[in-house]
Structure formats: C-alpha cells, structure tokens
C-alpha cells in the first residue's frame, strides 16, 4: 500500500496569495489536487490523505499538516502551489518543483521531483524552470520524501492564461499522479465487469433460451 499525502497549500483567505486580479491561489491549487486524487483512484493499493482544508475556508497551520502526515506514516508528501513574483503583472514565467535544501536531502525526493517537473511543465505548456531546493516547512519537517510544486506565476500575464484553464489545471494534477504511479510502480485497477458477468451460475440469455427449447 502506498500512502500519499495531498496538500493544496494556502487557504482562500491567506493574505497576498492571489493574482493581481484577486484570483486566490487556493482555487488553482485545489483544482490540481482534486484532479490528482481522482487520477490516483484508478490505481491499486493507494491511500490518499489531504491535509489542507478541502473547503479552503481555513489555512491549517503547516506544523499541523506535517504532524498529521508523519503520524499517518505516509510514503510521500506532495504540496501544490502557484507562484508570485512582485504581485503586479509581469512577463516572468515557468514551472518549478522543490525539494528540501538541508543536510537530510532525500534522494527519493529528488528522483520524484525529476519525474514530476517535466510532466507538469508540459501539462501547463509553460517554461520548465527545473528542480530546485528550498527550506520550506513541508519539505523540512516531513519524515518521508516530499516535494512542493509551483505550477506557474499568478502575477504573470503569460502564465495566468494557463492557470485560468480548467483543462490545464486538471492536466497538471493528472501529470503529478502519473509521475507518482511511475515512481511507485503502481498498477491500474482492472476494468470492472458487470454483475451479470460476475455470476458464474447465470447463463447468457441465448443459452438459457436454447436450454428451455431442448427440455
């Protein structure tokens, strides 16, 4: 069983976490996380735990999030964010994926980040700014491999076009799920057959009718 923590970042009301037009970062983040969770349900032996407030109403403290992930003994922690530069519109652009920059840098975190980064850059159709390192709380205080994605700049007049696309945000979430599936060698669930096919004692209509005529 692979236990995956989902984190959609800041709550709706967190100051400064918005585009110059007032679009909240959480709204972008949550769409990505929801798409990732839906995609992961297609695989066997996966459990997911979302540690942010799925309504966005409360900005749950980071220490509470990482404590919950550690207590759950998760296999991986993936936080989804969207970047900002000056808070005013500009032409900066691109997607980044972060791992912890401290002494306890996890090789697994780096390997996963290298799988995630090109996939989300392609999904968003934005510049690939590469895998980077930072001293973010969710990367530092987690006891499992952890990455944090920045899926584009909210204050970029280039990137905001992608962020306003439901299809691209869904593609970003699915891209992260696919990278996790590759890294953990997840298998897709088999297609469910209907109840009729599952019943070994129930003959197909044609065969049953033939048997009646033969009696």
Mean pLDDT: 90
For the record, give the distance between the C-alpha atoms at the N and C termini, rounded to a whole number.
52 Å
Assign the CATH architecture. 3-Layer(aba) Sandwich
Low-confidence regions: 193-215
Apparent shape: globular
Total of DSSP H or I helical runs spanning 4+ residues: 8
Class derived from helix and strand content: alpha/beta
CATH class: Alpha Beta
The CATH homologous superfamily is called: Zn-dependent exopeptidases
State Rg.
Answer: 21 Å
Number of strands: 6
Order of strands side by side in the largest beta sheet? 2-1-3-6-4-5
Largest sheet: 6 strands, mixed
Total individual domains: 1
SSE ordering: EHEHEEHEHEHHHH
**Amount of helix:** 40-55%
Question: How would you describe the overall organization of this protein?
Answer:
The protein is α/β, with parallel strands linked by helices and 215 residues long. It has one domain (2-214): Zn-dependent exopeptidases (Aminopeptidase, 3-Layer(aba) Sandwich), CATH 3.40.630.40. Helices cover 40% and strands 19% of the residues. The chain has helices at 25-40, 62-72, 107-124, 137-140, 159-163, 166-183, 195-198, 205-214, and strands at 2-7, 46-50, 76-83, 95-100, 128-134, 146-153. The relative contact order is 0.20.
